[in-house]
Design brief:
By secondary structure, this protein is mainly beta. The protein contains no helices and 19 strands. The strands form four sheets. Strands 13, 14, 15, 16, 17, 18 and 19 form a seven-stranded mixed sheet that branches. Strands 4-6-11-8-9 form a five-stranded mixed sheet, with no helix packed on it. A hairpin with a 5-residue loop joins strand 16 and strand 17.
C-alpha cells in the first residue's frame, strides 16, 4: 500500500529529502523523497493520514512540507511492540547513519505514542520477527504542540534537524528560526528520567533544561559533532526545555528522553 498525494518518489540511491520551491506549489515547499520502495514499505502524506489496523509493514514513512503530529494507537489485546524511528527515508535507518529518535522494545502492553515531528519526514521500522502483530491505527495532523509526555520515551528537536551523520539539516521557508523555542515535558506523576542532548549552539544560544519544581537546570552550549551529553532527573513532573535560535538556521539541537519507570529500552539511555 502506498498512499501518495503531493509526494513524488524517485528511484535513486539518495535517501534524505530536500525541500524546494516549484511553480506548481507556489505557496508551500515541495518534498522530494529519493529512495527505492521495498515490497512491504508504506509511504504516506501526513495531511489527512489515517491508517487503520491492517497489514504488518516492514516500515512506514510519513512526510509533510509542514511540521506535523503523528499518533500511534495502543495495540489491540494489550500486545507488546518493537519500533525504531528516524527522521530519514526508511532505507537510511541504520543507527550509524541516523540516530534513533524513538527506540521501543517492550514486553508489556504497547501504550501508543504521540510524536511532534519538527521536520519533513519520519520513518518507523517494526520488529515484525519478535512482535508479529499489526501496528495500531496511525493518524497524522498538520502542526505540532510544545507539550510532551514525560512518561513515554520521545524527543524534542529544532526545526529540520535530524541528527544524521554528514547530512545538512532540512531547510524550509516554513521553519521559524527567529522565535525562542520552548517545550514543556510533563507527567501526571513523579518520574525519574534520562535525557541526552546534542547541539552545535554556543553559550549565547544554549539549550537549557530545567526541572520547574526543584529549580535544577542544565545549560548546554555545544557538543562535539555526533556526540551528546547525558543528564538524569529524579522524581520530576514539570520539565522545560528552552533554546534561542540564531535567526538564520545555522545552529540546531536534538534532545531525547526516557522515563526510567517505563519498560521501554533505549540504546542511548541506560
Amino acid at each position: 500500500m502506498h498512499r501518495m498525494q503531493l509526494v513524488h518518489l524517485y528511484s535513486t540511491l539518495s535517501t534524505l529529502p530536500t525541500l524546494t520551491s516549484e511553480a506548481s506549489y507556489r505557496f508551500f515547499p515541495q518534498i522530494k523523497l529519493l529512495f527505492e520502495i521495498a515490497d512491504t514499505a508504506e509511504v504516506y502524506e501526513a495531511d489527512g493520514m489515517n491508517r487503520p489496523v491492517s497489514t504488518i509493514p516492514s516500515s512506514i514513512t510519513v512526510m509533510s512540507a509542514r511540521p506535523f503530529t503523528l499518533k500511534g494507537a495502543p495495540l489491540q489485546g494489550n500486545l507488546p511492540q518493537g519500533i525504531i524511528a528516524t527522521m530519514s527515508g526508511y532505507d537510511d535507518m541504520d543507527y550509524a547513519q541516523c540516530p534513533y529518535l524513538y527506540y521501543v522494545i517492550n514486553d508489556g502492553p504497547f501504550l501508543g505514542f504521540t510524536w511532534h515531528v519538527n521536520g519533513p519526514i519520519i520513518s518507523l521500522e517494526y520488529d515484525v520477527h519478535t512482535f508479529p502483530y499489526p501496528p495500531g491505527a496511525l493518524t497524522a495532523t498538520i502542526g505540532i504542540s510544545n507539550t510532551y509526555d514525560l512518561e513515554r520515551s520521545g524527543w524534542v528537536g529544532s526545526p529540520g534537524f535530524h541528527g544524521c551523520a554528514g547530512k545538512q539539516p532540512y531547510r524550509s521557508s516554513l521553519y521559524d528560526f527567529t522565535l525562542p523555542f520552548h517545550a514543556e515535558i510533563i507527567s501526571k506523576k513523579e518520574t525519574s528520567f534520562g535525557v541526552t542532548i546534542e547541539t552545535n549552539s554556543d553559550d549565547a544560544h544554549a539549550v537549557r533544561v530545567t526541572d520547574s519544581d526543584t529549580g535544577v537546570n542544565y545549560s548546554i552550549g555545544k557538543t562535539a559533532e555526533g556526540a551528546y551529553v547525558s543528564y538524569t532527573f529524579v522524581k520530576a513532573q514539570n520539565v522545560t526545555l528552552d533554546w534561542k535560535p540564531d535567526g538564520v538556521g545555522n545552529i540546531h539541537f536534538l534532545a531525547r528522553y526516557r522515563g526510567y519507570e517505563s519498560r521501554f529500552l533505549h540504546p542511548l539511555i541506560n
